[in-house]
Amino acid sequence: MSTTPPVSTTALLSAEALKVAFPGRRGAATARAVDGVDLDIRPGEIVALVGESGCGKTTLARSLLGLVPPTSGRVTFGGAPLDYTGRALKAYRKRVQLVLQDPSGSLNPRHTVYDAVAEGLRIHRYAGDERAAVSEALSRAGLRPPERFFLRFPHELSGGQRQRVVIAGALVLEPELIVADEPVASLDASVRGEILALLLRLRDELGLSALVVTHDLGLAWNIADRVAVMYLGRIVETGPVEQLLTAPQHPYTRALLSVLPEAQGEPVVLAGEPPDPSKVPSGCRFHVRCQVLASGEAERAGVAESCRTVDLPVLNGAGEAQVACHWAAARAGESGGGSADAPLT
What we know:
The protein is α/β, with parallel strands linked by helices. It contains 14 helices and 11 strands. It has 2 domains: 13-23 and 34-224, P-loop containing nucleotide triphosphate hydrolases (Rossmann fold); 247-334, no CATH class.
């Protein structure tokens, strides 16, 4: 788990009331992929965005990168709204870089490691010493001595080395923030820890901020300062990593945590698949799969009807512990604000 505190309380990157909707084909309903999100990422902070496939986390990440313009709301960087003109986006993407899940798909098999890392410099017409910049980026990514890798092709590298090349390609432009989409999902378990340690070292040495998109709460525990749990287009729980993962409030977060090896008790098996983003349920958007509602606990707490009919507010992006759940709010009221029991030791 990350322990170094953020160097600033002022947000570097923010989403404000962000919504991204995609029109349905042939008259089908609009899919609300991101349906009202506030999220701040501070300088030197690693935020993990967690949720099942289809919950909207990749669309949110792409919108933060300027790849998908929002339907409403806005993205700000350094306090200024994101400008979607071509020149402004080019300058923005020098400061905010993307690291994709599959390094094999990210690297051109016909390009050497040197060319892969130097590509960003050439796109942005770097005026300095290209060879020195590529060498430094490879060294920072853990490929030493860097000259030994210059003329290698992706197929000559291991999976971990390819991911380090992708990270070096992002670092060469000296960004302030990276967005890493499932950065270790395609790697062997023995290599995952090395890449996560690398990201933490880059944060500590360079003050680099990161948004790590993942379905794995175990990964979040090992790398993040803060976690935002996303379900059906909205963040349903957020807070400091240790507080959220040891005392989760939302039934969805509890279900995700229940399948980790450290979890006590039986895993929570959620009914069905995540609902269609073009058919968001009324009330709490999780209620159709909620184990607390199904078990009668919400009924006993007097909130079952609210779960089915009363929408919940968008959580603010400031970073304190928050949850969008009628049942959790009722429990907190009964206990005078205390947290729910933790499923982990």
